[in-house]
What does this fold into?
Amino acid sequence: MDRTDTQEQPAPCRATLDGAAAAWLGLLVGLLPACEARFVDLRPESERTGSPSQPSGMSTDGGSTPGDLGEGSDGGTQPSEVRVAIGRFEGRAGHGGSGGVALYRQGSALELRFDADFTVSAVPGPAIFLTSRADMGGSIDAQADIKLGTLSAFNGAQRIAVPAGADMGRRNVFVYCQPFRVEVAKAALMDVTQ
Amino acid sequence: MRRRRPLPSHRLGLLLLVGSLLLLVREKPAQAGPWTRDRGHLFVSLAYSRIAADRLFGADFRIVPLGASYEQHALQAYAELGLVNRFLTMSFESQLFRYNALLNQGATYGLGDLRLGFWSGLVTAPLRLTAAFLIGVPSGDPAPFASGDDEAQLIARSLPTGDGEVDFEPRLSLGYSFGGVRRWPLQHYMVIEAGYWIRTQGRSRNPRGQFVTSDFADAFTYRAELGTKLPFRVLERFWIILRMSGVESFASDIAASFTCATGLGNGVSYNAYGFEIAARIVRGLGANFGLDSALRARCVAAGVNLKAGLTYEF
It folds into this structure.
């Protein structure tokens, strides 16, 4: 089971050692420098979008984002809210993935909601894509694939805004390790008959 | 044409037995591992290695094509120092510099993890049996940070330089050298090692950028190595080494995590073959060149690991 620290900023790796072990190994090695790795951005200038932000439109249930529609999928729904499609995640390429997901519409706003039973293998760069393709494979198709944002957690209820019109013809949701271009989990959405 | 009569089976068996015994009694000095160093004797090595891959061994051991190109360059130091004759040799292994790159996306670089080892000879004749205890120190960065946009952070996080965990490994190492006799002039050494890698908790960042710790599953490790030296002028300076080595993690496919192609994280497994040529240049100075490639693996890059290095011992 994963445990979360409150610390968000990079820290020297010595902090990863506990108490006596840290002291003992620190003494033994003596010369360990702070070991934060440096990052070099190799993307073309045109692909960079500026400063860091919260994952776009993404929130765990109970949180709030500009695209928030209000109630989570486990709670009650507002009268004008319509559940458009539902699906269940399955792991891909040997990764684990399970749990429900649903697409909601309220007026012109769309939102994808992951159920409380959602869980997926922990990968370093988990992005969420809505696509018309049955398989993403190792490429991102700018026409077919819409990136909705990044996961906010590897399990539990969460929601993410879907740009207007992005759902047209797109009924496959992928959790995708974007840096390495590997599928992690997929849910095929089925339209809900009203 | 007169055919030679085949040897009777009992005579053939006797010859094989005598030959084997001759090989057994003729022990030659060999290198590293189970051969502990005498007090004050030192062996150091500095090696460069490179892996480039556009495929990886996925969480289910199958090869998955990447839509990206991954490269890893590392400068690795290794040293053995004899502290007490036979009973205590200390080893130090560290990635002094590790550079991971996803082409056209991003790269991270910095210090990698290090490993300390304590080796003690249990048996010295007719073969060598040495017990070792290794300690992994997380000097690398398990979750590099990028100050750029969200995508830059995903890229950085995917390219750790360490696994973020303290780990331990008791290991047994068996060594034997033979050959160099009239009937078998080739000289050989053989090493067989097995260990139990006790893994603890690794650190990484969750999608929100917070540090998380997660339990890593233990693993079984092994290495089998055969070195051969030809008894000819100049060529006798070279060891030709064939190797099989591996790590078999007890993590389930589902639990394998925070790994991708970097070979760091929970569930990393591999069975790899290797080929190496080690040459003695002058006195204690040597050089080596080799390659390793995995036959079966999980969560590592599916590419050939090329390495070249310099060694010195006294």
About this structure: The CA atoms of residues 198 and 249 of chain B lie 10 Å apart. Chain B touches chain A through 78 residues (CB under 8 Å). The first helix of chain B runs from residue 9 to 25. Chain B has a mean pLDDT of 87.
